[in-house]
UniProtKB/TrEMBL annotation:
InterPro entries: TMEM222/RTE1. GO terms for cellular component: endoplasmic reticulum; Golgi apparatus. Keywords: Membrane, Transmembrane, Transmembrane helix. The keyword Membrane applies. GO terms for biological process: regulation of ethylene-activated signaling pathway; response to ethylene. Pfam families: RTE1. The chain crosses the membrane at residues 202-220, 226-245. This is Protein REVERSION-TO-ETHYLENE SENSITIVITY1.
Amino acid sequence: MAMFRQSSEGRMSPKTVPMELEAAVDSEDASSNQRLHDLWPLGEVDPKRARFPCCIVWTPLPIVSWLAPYIGHVGIGREDGAVLDFAGSNFVSEDNFAYGAVARYLQLDRKQCCFPPNLAGHTCEQNYRHAERGTAISWDDALHSSMQHFQHKYYNLFTCNCHSFVANCLNRLAYNGCVRWNVVTLASLILWRGKWVDGKSVVRSFLPFVSVLCIGILMAGWPFLIGMAVFSSLLVGWFLFGIYCTRSLIE
């Protein structure tokens, strides 16, 4: 029985040793998980080199943005700044942003994302819904999973487009604790919080719209403005209806 008690030299009993080993293993696992989720510093946003780390980026679309300047092409930046965008059916472009240089961007905070090591490790409140949408252990892991998913999708401006791809990424990240990102919420985020790259980007985005508007008024008068208003209403109404009334209609 003496061998199971603590000796005068301070040795531990066999019952104590496994408990200490278990605590050490748990501590090591926690330390490993902490290292896994440590967020290293990002590089600076550099429009000249087309580097936008952890940013949502936007640029105007030909013809479509001439009639509705709030609509454009969007993508999302990896941690190294390279931009991914759903540029066509079964194709996600890497570091080759479609339709020209980035005009507007919004850098997101990775601390607002949920990177759960398991189902019990969610930091967001919607852990089960997040698991259904797809989880990731890092920012780039989420983007890679969405990229693989959309490489088997057909592009359609009205049902499955570049906004759908970026929204899918944000849902995998559970950004800001939300897993219900969609075309409308994403467009609103860029519209109200996005930053312009420079003054030239503002001109490039709005000059064609203003030109079309002026020409239309000169040639057709007020009916042209009414037609533009109806066009915008139908376009916005389609996305609102597709997302909130027929959820399976729009990705």
